[in-house]
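note to self: dont lose this again. the chain is below, predicted strucutre after it. 246 aa total, dont forget to put it in the shared folder this time
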Amino acid sequence: MTAKRKPAAPFYAVAALWLLGGLFLPLYSNTAIALLAAVSAAVFLLVNGICQGGRAAAGSAGTEKKEEAKAPEKPKEEPTTGNPELDKAIKDGKLALSEMKRLDDNIADPGVSADIVRLSQVSEKIFQAVRDDPDKLPQIRQFMNYYLPTTLKLLNTYDRMSGAGVSGENIDGTKEKVEDMLKTIVRAFEKQLDALYGADALDISTDIQVMETLLAREGLTEPEMKADPVQEDGTDIRLELYPRGM
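---
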């Protein structure tokens, strides 16, 4: 425990007061000495009170600054879309992408790392597609509830076994199965992303067909050109075979 130091200013003030008293008062008189002593006590208490108040104010300011410095920063609130289910999907998606990045940093195998990067890229595009068009959210429920968390579970298992530092039938066999499965998962994620644009592709095909029909009806398209039959030697002679007896 640190001992508090008394302020020196009150003592200096009393000393200065006695010096002035020695110059202007007859200190050989008991009355003058008693008067100066009383005034010195009052000056001491006054100056000491001022010093204590200043130190208290400074200490309070310092404490407030320390508390402000120690106060943790409040996490930034994610902007809401007004759709709780969509907000949850976006939040879970960000957590999944963050976990994939962590696993990619931990796992040294270049093939597995490349698969994780691809999974991360496709997953991010899936989340972006749903963010742009919330009507697609029902299409990724199975992806969010099973495929994505199961993929992260497989990768975490692979990460733990890789960090075990030993080789064995169980560890090596499991790692090999995960490596093979990752190729299938990458293709599945890519198909999930492609499926999100199925309705868009159908709409575009319909629009193109309708436009082609209207353009042709209005005569705004070029008629298809058909090639004339090639005639050799510049003749029009045709050979026709007839049955006998005609």
